[in-house]
Amino acid sequence: MYKIAVLPGDGIGQEIVPEAVKVLQACGEKFGLAFEFREALVGGAAIDATGHPLPEETLNLCRESDAVLLGAIGGPKWDNLPVHLRPEAGALLPLRKKLGLYANLRPAVLYEALIDASPLRQEIVEGINILVIRELTGGLYFGEKKREKIPGGEKATDTLTYTTQEIERIGRLAFEAARKRRKVLHSVDKANVLESSRLWRETMTRLQEEYPDVELIHMYVDNAAMQLVRWPRQFDVIVTENMFGDILTDQASMLTGSIGMLASASIGGKVALYEPAHGSAPDIAGQKKANPLATILSAALMLRYSFNHEEAAAAIEKAVVRVLEKGYRTPDIMQPGCRLVNTEEMGERVVEELLAL
Ligand code: IPM
Ligand code: MG
Asked: How many angstroms separate the alpha carbon of residue 246 from the centre of ligand 1?
């Protein structure tokens, strides 16, 4: 029996998470797995109900579970609260930190059927399969922050800190991942300017001695942003610090057609967390327009990484491919000649294909 904490959160999180749960339930039937889903409040939804974006109860539920499925958090309604009570700084970041989830895996895979949905030309995006590994509990997100009054206004400070140990653990994870794939690892930094990046680069170079079978390529982040649209197929595994990873993964998602396709797994602690890489999309919330595939594909990652059930994970991914091949599309990936479906219908189509496999 696998215990899954279900945290739909805000905005479209409320619509996409139930679809992923449906798909997991179908997987349970098909592969004889038993799941227990327990729902809890997080983000704005939790602020409205309890006054805090990450209630103790939610954190405890996550700690007691075998995995966490999260939708998305945040929205304009809570943007003006003091920073520690905002959904991002008050819930998502502490959740990642408290669960020890220092590695965020974001696979950007182009599905054949979506080749024309990418804003880039077919010959550029064809065959893309990139795994971005983003450091998730260090860097600017968690460094000391300060605001001071100075003559003429204010002074705001964020600090970017990394320790050898923090770089080594994410570095090892990245080398191990690269070893199981094409054995090419791009380490992205800004070592020509930042001290933390120089330590990052030195540490990665030293680690490489333990992985002589993996080719290590250092790349500056500005160049990496350019190379991602110029010739994305050169990348297999990318490892980078928190902020660079945040930016590059949004960019990488568009290679695959839509950010609505980008799944993610945050690992490193006892309990891992699975969430789509996109946000709560308040502009389309409540309209059944959201693409649930990133969340459904995150559920596949849960089966793979937390429950070690490769067969079920691959079955979900295959079902998604089938649904796309049959031409079903949410608005974000809609193309001429395809069939527009809403969030729920998309989830149902995946369940159908999964059960038919
Ligand atoms: C992400 C998101 C979050 C981040 C926000 C919501 C704090 O953009 O998961 O990429 O910056 O990490
Ligand atoms: Mg982001």
From this structure: 7
- Among protein residues, the one whose CA lies closest to atom 4 of ligand 1: 246
Q: Which pLDDT score, from 0 to 100, does residue 205 have? A: 98
Distance (Å, whole) CA 43 – CA 75? 9
- pTM comes to 0.95
The domain locations on the chain are: 1-103+260-357, 119-255
Residue-wise pLDDT tens digits, 5-21: 999 999 999 999 999 99
List residues with catalytic annotation.
141, 190, 222, 246, 250
What does the pLDDT read at residue 257? 87
Which residue's C-alpha comes closest to atom 12 of ligand 1? 246
pLDDT, tens only, 132-179? 999 999 999 999 999 999 999 999 999 999 999 999 999 999 999 999
With a cut of 90, say whether residue 289 has pLDDT above it: yes
Matching fold, domains 1-103+260-357 and 119-255: yes
CB 70 within 8 A of CB 275: yes
Residue nearest atom 7 in ligand 1 by C-alpha distance:
88
Amino acid at 69: L
What CATH topology corresponds to 119-255?
Isopropylmalate Dehydrogenase (3.40.718)
Cα(255) to centroid(ligand 2), Å: 15
What kind of fold does domain 1-103+260-357 have according to CATH?
Answer: Isopropylmalate Dehydrogenase (3.40.718)
Q: 232 alpha carbon to ligand 1 midpoint, in Å?
A: 23
